[in-house]
Amino acid sequence: MVLIHDRDKKFPRAFDAILASADIKIIRTPRQAPNANAHVERWVGTLRRECLDRLLILGHRQLGHVLRVYVHHYNQHRPHRALDLRPPDPDHAPAVRGDPATSTATVQRRDLLGGVIHEYQLAAAA
Fold it and tell me: pTM higher than 0.90 for the full model?
């Protein structure tokens, strides 16, 4: 397990020693580098807004399940604007782009985490 934190005085060396005794590796961000952890902070913010703020987590096992489901959704189904509305997983099929008015395909919705997250895909042609 790894913990990444900045060099704020609220994280003294004694804090790091306690975590190290529990086999947690401590990584400190560089000095005077406020954007060193920007990508992770953005991802955590997205996770909170889209998932965790909408659920009541009652235990460690439930949190682990919720995180596994969300990470799978985020990497294999969630559209990302920077990727032309495709998910980051390169093995996943690209999103179908076309004129919605002329499309006759039906769309199926799958609810995850009790309806907090919805995934959509084209239904197989009958």
Answer: no
